[in-house]
Task: structure prediction
Amino acid sequence: MAAPAAHRPPCPGLNALANHGYLPRNGRNISLEQFITGITEGYNYDTNFTIFAVDVYQNFTTTGFNNTLNLNDLEHHAANLRNDLYFGDNHSFNKTIWDTVAAHFQNDAISISDAAKARKDRFAAAKAVNPEFTPSILSSLGETALFLRTMQGQDKETKTEYVKILFREERIPFNEGYKRSNVTITNEDLGKIAGDVAIAWLELELGQ
Result:
């Protein structure tokens, strides 16, 4: 697990990679090559996805040097586990927030509609209390697709147990039987899942 001085972002997937040593455990000054290696070895994502993700990530980073990134530079609103920076702490686990998200995950597997409802409600809750809220539905769809596909691994569905372990304990649930995907995960794969989540989200909005 992370040492007290380690840098960690609001992203449990990256935190888990660092906690397992796929990324530097201190979360500091991570190069593109280290990101590619770590994300590929940990989750089997396509290199093009990693390059794209790092390119997006660089819009947030401020403290790395020599073209490197620090994990704790990332900030986005309406994280599933943490409060927004507006409230002073966007890196500590927030049980109240997580409980509202986890309440949507009551079945053995998380469906697209479950994930969409959880993300929609968390998005709305953050927007309601943060006067500086910056809406980014696309990033919300993307991060939802990420955890659904990542924790699906080699299974046909995304097990709720795996997602809760990743989110709450920030570790990859190898001990519980998780196996990373044996098929390389591409931008196209994630785009399709994000599109399905978007449709489910819209259906929820129209149904209100």
About this structure: The chain has eight helices and no strands. The helical segments are 12-20, 32-43, 47-57, 95-102, 112-129, 137-152, 160-169, 187-207.
